[in-house]
Amino acid sequence: MATSPTQRTYQAPCPGCGAPVEFRSAQSTHAVCAYCQSTVVRSGDVLQRLGKMAELFDDHSPLQLMATGRVPLDGKELPFTLVGRLQFKGDAGVWTEWAAFLDDGTLATLSEDNGAYVFTRAIDPGRELPEARRFRVGTTTAINGKPYSVAFSGQACLIAAQGELPKLPPLGEPFGMVELRSSEGDVLSIDYSRQPPQVERGRAVLLDDLKLQGLKDASVKDEKGRQFSCPHCGAPVQVQLATTKSLTCPSCASLINLDSGVGGELRAAEQDEPVQPLIALGSKAQLQGVHWQVVGFQHRMGREPGDDELFGWNEYLLYNQKRGFAFLVDAEDGWSLVRPATGAPRLSSDGRSATYLGSTYALQYSYDAETTYVLGEFYWPVARGQKTANRDFANSKGLLSMEQTANEVTWSSGDRLQADTVAQAFGLKDKADLLQRGSDPGPFVASKGAGCGTVILIAVVIIILLIILSDCSGGSSGGSGYSRNSGGSWGGYSSGGGHK
What we know:
By secondary structure, the chain is mainly beta. 7% of the residues lie in helices and 44% in strands.
């Protein structure tokens, strides 16, 4: 068994307070003193104080400094240690980047965004990159001969940092950030806080697969200091999740925006015409081997271009500490469980199909969507009236959904679920009939014990009904005969930080 190479570490007193500041990687140039929050830069064997770093906001991530793990790279597993932490805020939300010191002496990045994780390493793009504003969302580009779709292009800034760091943009100063994604699930980020821009490439990972040790246990906020009065009715409102950006008042159902944080200016919007969810907030279930809890609910309406008819569907926001968020979608044609996709499926030239992870999906529906009612907590600042342009794709294996705003393209992927599966998982067998949808077995499907006579009788009745309907409509020449019966976005608006 090969042993890890011995790495030289460097330690010097903090210029601010004299406490020891340690550097494990030769690539690290900056650090934040754990005692006085001084930001220091290493110049040879001397540390210089640049100023004081803003304190981290407590996002209750399961990760923490000095947690260790193993990541598969180049056909082998490399041990790593989390030595630094950067918190960013951008047009699409807040996210964290952890500096991972690998046993081969190099640094990598473990990005954390609303419970999703991507492990990336720096690469040479092979060419001079254009300015960030030249990348337009939804277009394609090539890096090292590989096609990528532009998923995000906007501004970001550093808001806090901790530990040993390979780079340190000026605190609070905006810089360009571009996210590229491929149909094979690759993620490529371009950071314009330095010149030439820093380019990193990687893939989504699960915390369990990284064999992490030294994690924190809780991801739920301490109730102390996370309760406030509803700006509309004055009733107490409790925030449960660390990543919550908006939530509804349990008393008056007003929608409250927390984008500025509790204690900032709270904006409340009164909601009428409430939609009652079939699955109560707080309900727990195990679906596809993962334990989920319902934390949010939204009702959405859609309209196809050129069609005045509206259709609606419901989306339940599910949460798991290590898997992040997922959507349980309740549409006219059935239930589905989907999650935001890390990569970007490749659209055909005519837009009638999309290819993702080697599978091709056919376009089912194209429509505009709007959020009309919400309950619970959300990791993005949801609001009534939020609109997206949607495309739904499907094949025999699963579902794909694309949602596009002016600044971001979000893909979701997942699978259909039978209503009986949903009812059993949430302990709602008493509501089994209410959960049945168009794709579920109906009353005319012969049961396992049905005899031949029953099946023949049903067939005869169906034939007679078809003849009657044919006679009734024989003189009509109007109507296309097309009826949209999906109504599901298969994932919904899932922004709020689409980085990595």
